[in-house]
Amino acid sequence: MDCCVCGSMPIALRTRNLLCISCYEGTKGLLTFVSNIVDANSVSQANTAKGFANVLKLITEMKEREEMLNDKLSFLSGLVVAFKDEIHTDIQVKPSNGPSIPAHRSLLAARSTIFKNVLESDGCKAPPSETISLPELTHEELQSLLEFLYSGSLPTEKISKHVYSLYTTADKYDIPFLQKYCEHWMLGSLNLSNALDVLETSDVCPNTILKDSAMKFIINHIEDIVFSAGYDSFAVKNPILNVQLTRALLIEIKRKNKADSPA
């Protein structure tokens, strides 16, 4: 019979409390870990058995929640299919270059209050063949934006390539989840090659967390950043940011000197 935790049979058909060797050993290890936290003298054999049952129940519930989440994701993926296969699309979205991309009015309106207002305006109450333009986005960037609006995520290669344009677009069209998604990615991928870009983006679309993180990273790697290929163009393009960066560096140097000086 199938294991009640990892078996392939539907949950309703599995025999309760029947474990395979792998799940048994994992549960046993987890129980041992929990038991070690508690004073061994205060744990009776009955409590240990009860603890084992509770751990087994917890693991089973976690597995059920995981399966439910997978089913939900599979269900929602129908939106992505409708986008990719252009099923009953009723509006064209035009980028700055290349062909327009078919989409669905209702989904655009649901994802962005700005899109909702635009689509509900008198000038947009036209036949389904109507086109709306997003001239700030290239065809690739628009494709990634729409893919995110339909699926809620993007492959690594797309988010890494278009994160700055998607972040500013999310700010402009009021798409909070996309903005948070891009912010999380920028914070998690901050490095010598993109720190100045992240700092510039945080200034264009004001974001204190993003700006402070980028500023701190740059100060901690100031020599590598200042002598990098992109610093000169950054300084010319962003004089105010460069002044702020210089002041923050001087404050950090002063703080370190004070900490290193004898009391």
Automatic annotation (TrEMBL):
Pathway linked to the protein: Protein modification; protein ubiquitination
Record domain BTB: where? 89-158
One of this protein's Pfam families, by short name? BTB
What organism does the record attribute this protein to?
Coptis chinensis
Q: What is this protein called?
A: BTB domain-containing protein
Q: Which residues cross the membrane?
A: none
Q: What does this protein do?
A: May act as a substrate-specific adapter of an E3 ubiquitin-protein ligase complex (CUL3-RBX1-BTB) which mediates the ubiquitination and subsequent proteasomal degradation of target proteins.
Organism lineage reads as: Eukaryota, Viridiplantae, Streptophyta, Embryophyta, Tracheophyta
Kindly give the Gene3D superfamilies that the UniProt entry links to this protein.
1.25.40.420, Potassium Channel Kv1.1, Chain A
